[in-house]
From TrEMBL:
Signal peptide residues on this chain, from the entry's feature table: 1-23
Protein name per its UniProtKB record: von Willebrand factor A domain-containing protein 2
Domain VWFA: 51-222, 343-517, 531-705
Residue ranges occupied by any EGF-like domain in the UniProt entry: 296-333, 712-748
PANTHER family according to UniProt: COLLAGEN ALPHA (PTHR24020), VON WILLEBRAND FACTOR A DOMAIN-CONTAINING PROTEIN 2 (PTHR24020:SF37)
One GO BP annotation of this record: calcium-independent cell-matrix adhesion
Length: 781
């Protein structure tokens, strides 16, 4: 068969431009860290004796626009240089077809002169002869420089698309002691930049398009050699994972189409199917490590209280995004007195195990505490008791209202020695340590026992501790590391224990103790904005009696919050033979309705799956469609006996990754491994021995919820945008970018083809994301 000439048609499709929103380099850190990198780039200063030569690519492949950005990068670097004839000297070359000296290193002695000269540089165009420029420097050195008497730094700004070889001359320059930074511009070819740069290459390859990130990277590397340093001593260089992208042309098979084949010998033309190809530009990713300097920021101290979100502004300013109840106060802080109404009994170990020195340390702590905390108008009443073989109430509650008289009475309390019968002392303190007052309920002050000891008990403590907690006493422990475990058993929570290492460290616990005494009575938690969902195990392994205990516990917890659509919303999910939403977040807007609904929640029985229930909360409860509020902290409390939790770790982490805190209350004598995995990396777990003991752990749960409610929130987690819309943070608020066919602030409205769509996006600029979020600014100092 005679050969045929195959005529193939190739279709070429070229994208005229690349989406500008896709960065060519991305450092994988939080938005807060990105801001810190930007700020730190303005806090660097280079004052050592050094010669810095800029080699700017002025070829046609770079173009005039990117050349201007190269100049801007060089000018920004100069802002941090102490330019003078004795310290930092700066020169500049422009290269394209040939290298051109713009000005030598000894031309200018001030920062203003150098920046003005760089600004006046004119784009030349031509071929990209990077290798020719490097050979020029090899042969003639740094013009106007000080040779090898000072460090020599070459900063090459190029797209990496040289029309000659660059590896050999770059290697020879580096062998002569020149430090080479390769800074990409436009769509750089990263492999050539790596060939140009000094070792370690990850620290000497940058991107000029991101000028603040590039200057930070340059100065971070130079700080290792003491050429540059930060103006703030607490700044540090850290490694971050990052990704660099290269724009490449690739050919893709587009399918077959009819074509015609002909032959020189035969006059006929035959029809056939021929392959068609398309060409397009794609980004290829290159994983890397970026070294950047960050400095302590104004938000590191978390100045915004009660769930406010801190947004940095400049070097030392910030703004607080506050919930409604605290929008008018500084840093979202309520106007509260530090005093609280409490009857406080200090229980001091006076046994031989603690020794006389330990007893004197405890007395000194009590004296310093009352002098620091109590005042004439204080509503706290203090008593002191000691124990060894038996309890002795040395100072009855409220006997002394005058602080100096109270301190003098403490001096007269003797050390007794004897066995350490802590359990007996706890039971006696609960029965007679607070007198015979008959006040109950809201009329009675909070009653607290603070146990100070350095020795383990010689009798059983678990039963007396439960007896004390059953009488509504808050137990707090202060002791050495040796008694930490026993104090945690007595108080019922690690958060109720303060451990010290030396006498001064003991005195440092005074502010923490004061905070624990008054924490429950601060309205900053009761009025905290929060979306809270309780998830109850109602499987057959729990049983209806224990389910009733859980209902009672949830009702008691709900009383600690102000339930209304602007402050705290509460939802309830039960799971057993199935998963059921007893009521959603926005279903019960008042506390009375909420309490009734908790009592009416169904007991399901059957076999439960905690993982399925958590996914149900993720998909059908903690969503904007079901009442979740953007910008409001969110938490899920799981109450379970532990069975059916084997599949729950991954769904729980999915909730946490979406900005929703998860706490597990595991009930039973032993915690299963599944529950420990469910608790997550932050160990968000409360161990309860029996369902009847749930009430003793309410304070710990409320404290945890208050802490979670005060953590910073991400307005886009969970996403408030419906129907697969994308949430974008913007100017302290957010906006929703809707898919085709959807519109509205949260992409909640569908429009038909042919209808005139309304503004398909989102919150207008400056609009608040939710009524409970107000913006509060604090200027920099």
């Amino acid at each position: 068969m005679p050969p045929f000439l195959l005529l193939e048609t190739i279709c070429i499709f070229l994208f005229s431009r690349v989406p500008p929103s896709l960065p060519l380099q991305e450092v994988h850190v939080s938005r807060e860290t990105i801001g810190k990198i930007s700020v730190a780039s303005k806090m660097m200063w280079c004052s050592a004796a050094v010669d810095i030569l800029f080699l700017l690519d002025g070829s046609n492949s770079v173009g005039k626009g990117s050349f201007e950005r190269s100049k801007h990068f060089a000018i920004t670097v100069c802002d941090a240089l102490d330019i003078s004839t004795e310290r930092v000297r700066v020169g500049a070359f422009q290269f394209s077809s040939t290298p051109h000296l713009e000005f030598p290193l000894d031309s200018f002695s001030t920062q203003q002169e150098v920046k003005a000269k760089i600004k006046r540089m004119i784009f030349k165009g031509g071929r990209t002869e990077t290798g020719l420029a490097l050979k020029y420097l090899l042969n003639r050195g740094f013009p106007g420089g000080r040779n090898a008497s000072v460090p020599q730094i070459l900063v090459i700004v190029t797209d990496g698309k040289s029309q000659g070889h660059v590896a050999l001359p770059a290697k020879q320059l580096k062998e002569k002691g020149v430090t080479v930074f390769a800074v990409g511009v436009r769509f750089p070819r990263w492999e050539e930049l790596h060939a140009l740069a000094s070792e370690p290459r990850e620290q000497h390859v940058l991107l000029a398009e991101q000028v603040e990130d590039a200057t930070n990277g340059l100065f971070s590397t130079l700080s290792n050699s003491a050429i540059c340093s930060s103006t703030t001593p607490d700044c540090r260089v850290e490694a971050h994972p990052c990704e660099r992208r290269t724009l490449e042309m690739v050919r893709e098979f587009a399918g077959n189409a009819p074509c015609w084949r002909g032959s020189r010998r035969a006059p006929a033309v035959l029809a056939a199917h021929c392959p068609f190809y398309s060409w397009k530009r794609v980004f290829l990713a290159h994983p890397a490590t970026c070294y950047r300097t960050t400095c302590p920021g104004p938000c590191d101290s978390q100045p915004c209280q009660n769930g406010g979100t801190c947004v940095p502004e400049g070097l030392d300013g910030y703004q607080c995004l506050c919930p409604l109840a605290f929008g008018g106060e500084a840093n979202c802080a309520p106007k509260l007195s530090l005093e609280c109404r409490v009857d406080l009994l200090f229980l001091l170990d006076s046994s031989a195990g603690t020794t006389l020195d330990g007893f004197l340390r405890a007395k000194a702590f009590v004296k310093q505490f009352v002098q620091a905390v109590l005042s004439e108008d204080s509503r706290a009443r203090v008593g002191v008791a000691t124990y060894s073989r038996e309890l002795l109430v040395a100072v009855p509650i409220g006997e002394y209202q005058d602080v100096p008289d109270l301190v003098r009475s403490l001096d007269g309390i003797p050390f007794r020695g004897g066995p350490t019968l802590m359990g007996s002392a706890l039971r006696q303190a609960a029965d007679r340590g607070f007198g015979s007052a008959t006040r109950t309920g809201q009329d009675r002050p909070r009653r607290v026992v603070v146990l100070l000891t350095e020795s383990r008990s010689e009798d059983e403590v678990a039963g007396p501790a439960r007896h004390a907690r059953a009488r509504e006493l808050l137990l707090l422990g202060v002791g050495s590391e040796a008694v930490r475990a026993e104090l945690e058993e007595i108080t019922g929570s690690p958060k109720h224990v303060m451990v010290y290492s030396d006498p001064q460290d003991l005195l440092n616990q005074i502010p923490e103790l004061q905070g624990k005494l008054c924490s429950r009575q601060r309205p900053g938690c009761r009025t905290q904005a929060l979306d809270l969902v309780f998830m109850l195990d109602t499987s057959a392994s729990v049983g209806p009696e224990n389910f009733a205990q859980m209902q009672s516990f949830v009702r008691s917890c709900a009383l600690q919050f102000e339930v209304n659509p602007d402050v705290t919303q509460v939802g309830l999910v039960v799971y057993g033979s199935q998963v059921q939403t007893a009521f959603g977040l926005d279903a019960k807007p008042t506390q009375a309705a909420l309490l009734r609904a908790i009592s009416q929640a169904p007991y399901l029985g059957g076999v439960g799956s905690a993982g399925t229930a958590l996914l149900h909360i993720y998909d059908k409860v903690m969503t904007v469609q079901r009442g979740a509020r953007p910008g409001v902290p969110k938490a899920v409390v799981v109450l379970t006996g532990g069975r059916g939790a084997e599949d729950a770790a991954v769904p729980a982490q999915k909730l946490r990754n979406n900005g929703i805190s998860v706490l597990v209350m595991g009930v039973g004598p032993v915690l299963s491994e599944g529950l420990r995995r469910l608790a997550g990396p932050r160990d968000s777990l409360i161990h309860v021995a029996a369902y009847t003991d749930l009430r003793y752990h309410q304070d710990v749960l409320i404290e945890w919820l208050c802490g979670e409610a005060k953590r910073p929130v991400n307005l886009c987690k969970p996403s408030p945008c419906m129907n697969e819309g994308s949430c974008v943070l913007q100017n302290g608020s957010y906006r929703c970018e809707c898919r085709d066919g959807w519109e509205g602030p949260h992409c909640e409205n569908r429009f038909l083809r042919g209808d005139a769509p309304k503004a398909r996006g989102s919150h207008a600029e400056g609009q608040q994301p939710y009524p409970s979020q107000q913006l509060q600014r604090r200027p920099g100092h």
